[in-house]
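Support case: user asked for a sample of complex input and structure output to validate their parser. Sending the pair below.
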Amino acid sequence: MTAPPDMSTGRLPIEQPLDLAASLHSGQAHRWTRDSDAGGDGNGPWHWGVIHGRLIKIRPNGPGELEFRASPSTAPDEMTSILESYFRLDDDIQSILQEVAGDPQVATMVDRHRGLRLLRIDPWECLISFICSANSNIPRIHSNMESMAGNLGGPLSLDGEVRYLFPTPQRLAEAGEGALRSLGLGFRAPYVAKTARIVADGHLDLESLRNMPYLGAKACLEDLPGVGPKIADCVLLHSLDKLEAFPIDVWVRRALAEWYFPGQKPPPNRVMLEWALEHFGPYAGYAELYLFHGRRLEKK
DNA sequence: TTCTGCCCTTGGCA
DNA sequence: ATGCCAAGGGCAG
């Protein structure tokens, strides 16, 4: 006889707009997959991910509720609070949307993608995923993340599916540049290995950045190999509650140049960032989420 | 200070 | 199929 599975199930009432598919597959997080079949009951497919050390699958259950299954099991209300944190249901989303919708471009995109939510990702996993994003593309980033997990993280199972924990800083540091190159990281391998060593040795406490001001936390991140202004902003926005962080990648740069600097030579990124913070305000990162991740969703 | 070329490979697309 | 090239930056010079 097999032992009973160690798992939790539950439902989470949602009183805010939350589009699971848009939020989980918009390029913020890099470890979510979704079932190819929609289940046939009108609730949409299950989305599978690993958060807070657990393999979880989640889907809408009607308009105002999420349904989830997770393993290993949690205390009765723990998974609820994990999900509320992950989807940032503690944000005052109405106030934030009202604020950023002061810009007409943003207002249009908020209107079209109201259920798109910023995620609160684990800082370590977030940091490595965005170091891997340099001069890369989303399918490849996903592949890199799954390769690291599958080779260096521990297994988790749920409903017959097996996924893997994202490796700890110690594990990635021990693996080293060579192993990471063999996993397909290319020139990013030494960045990941060195950053892992720094974090594993306790020279940077990522969680402590959550309580620091935006610029100070950004400076700490930029000290890491493979982390410049753009990737620092990604980590700050998507994992460390710095809602004013505004990552400027090539696509954001092109669009901002076209929309807000027509017929001009666009300013260098450092100046463009200052402009964005001034123009979009304290929730600039939320503005970017709707402008650009929403735009990507429309192209697919 | 600002700007250029290079870095590993993989996907995406003629 | 095959070849080309851009790809969600960072870094050194």
